[in-house]
Write a structure and sequence with these properties.
This protein has 12 helices and 14 strands. It is of the alpha/beta class. The chain folds into 2 domains: 222 residues, Rossmann fold (3-Layer(aba) Sandwich); 142 residues, no CATH class. It has a 6-stranded mixed β-sheet. A 4-stranded mixed β-sheet has the order 11-10-9-14, with helices on one face. A two-stranded antiparallel ribbon has the order 6-7. It is elongated, with a radius of gyration of 28 Å. About 2% of the residues have low confidence.
Length: 384
């Protein structure tokens, strides 16, 4: 594996149709021509049934074995690529798909590509380079969009261009470091040593931070991932329902534990009333928080009594910061990093005569609704 100690594993992912040359052309552009060069540790290919057969015979065979030839010609280190790395889009029955023709075929291809990209970007210690140079236009579109949904800062997207008369020639696989004469598609002779390959990097919008944790960890259909990404910038709206301890933020509803809900409720009330946030050293903060907690649990319960005893000792940084961290974790899990940002507690203005800053919600008061604790959840006053 071409992975220096402590660095990310490099993975090349491509789609092809009936032209497996895209793999060798892209690898040449990245590992031989680019400066600095980018040498993958493994390669994955997504294609159809016939595309897989062509890739297996042209690239992975003993003869002509174009992938191994390229590695030998340019002294490329061991790269993990073989028949097991050629992935065929399945049809509705799980059988290899022959071609992308129907709406159902497109849907299957989109879902398969999306889940493949999700899996390859799941670990932080990987770096993915995606090529959309081959295959039907729909395959390239879905692959590029999937990278936009799941791509991280270290991931890249590109298209490879081959000079005439070598483009689309079945006999051309990469520029050779020696003379090799082939017959081009217009029945002319050309030397592959004269070929030029250009890698065009394609900028793309990264939407990963807008996806909830569930779509990052588990299988998701393409349409589901797109729908979640479209929620990334909804109108700001926060609803707290003390009766059910449910929070609705940015269109997503989730529950908090009583202590966490009481903590968040306090800050939401202050923001809605136009009051400053809070700092753990504020006088009376522990009593105020206990008052919110007592409206969520039975005041005669053991939980309440233990909380009352703890709050009587006052609020400290050691119990303020963990409460804030637990609330932030729940919000990020439900909304994803980007969508969660407006609903987190942020440092506000400095406390006069102190080096501390109060924490609070920066949402406008008009975006916050708190249902009456005595009302059943079916009568919540608003929803995002």
């Amino acid at each position: 594996m071409n992975t220096p100690s402590g660095s990310r594993e490099r993975i090349l992912l491509a789609v092809t149709g009936l032209s497996p040359q895209v793999i060798t052309e892209t690898l040449y552009a990245l590992a031989v021509q680019a400066r600095p060069r980018w040498l993958p540790g493994r390669i994955h290919l997504i294609t159809t049934r016939e595309g897989a057969e062509r890739a297996r015979l042209a690239l992975c065979s003993e003869e002509p074995g174009w992938f191994a030839r390229l590695c030998r010609d340019y002294g490329l280190g061991p790269i993990d690529f073989g028949p097991d790395h050629i992935h065929v889009v399945p049809d509705a029955r799980g059988e290899p798909l022959d071609d992308i023709r129907s709406p159902e075929d497109n849907e299957r291809a989109a879902d398969f590509i999306t889940d493949t990209v999700r899996r390859l970007t799941a670990r932080d210690d990987t770096e993915l380079h995606v090529s959309i140079a081959g295959g039907r236009k729909t395959l390239g579109y879905y692959l590029g969009y999937a990278l936009s949904l799941y791509g991280r800062p270290q991931d890249r997207l590109s298209h490879v261009l081959v000079s005439e008369p070598f483009e689309s020639s079945w006999e051309f696989f990469y520029p050779t470091p020696y003379s090799r004469v082939i017959t081009t598609r217009d029945n002319k002779l050309a030397d592959t040593a004269d070929a030029r390959v250009t890698l065009a990097e394609i900028p793309f919008v990264r939407l990963r931070d807008g996806l909830p944790q569930g779509l990052l960890e588990g299988g998701a259909r393409f349409s589901e991932a797109v729908a979640e990404a479209q929620k990334a910038l909804p109108p700001l709206c926060l609803v707290l329902d003390p009766a059910s301890r449910r929070v609705t933020a940015g269109g997503e509803t989730f529950s908090l534990k009583p202590a966490e809900f009481a903590f968040y409720w306090l800050f939401a009330e202050r923001a809605r009333a136009g009051q400053p946030g809070a700092h753990w050293s504020d006088d009376g903060l522990a009593e105020e928080l206990l008052g919110h907690y007592g409206r969520l649990v039975n005041p005669a319960s053991g939980d309440y009594q233990r909380a009352a005893e703890a709050y009587r000792r006052g609020m400290t940084k050691e119990n303020f910061d963990p409460a804030k961290a637990h609330v932030h974790k729940a919000i990020r899990k439900a909304l994803g990093e980007r969508r969660a940002e407006p609903y987190l507690l942020h440092p506000l203005g400095p406390i006069p005569g102190s080096r501390y800053r109060r924490q609070g919600l920066s949402l406008p008061a008009s975006a916050i609704t708190i249902a009456a604790p005595s009302l059943p959840s079916a009568h919540k006053s608003a929803a995002c």
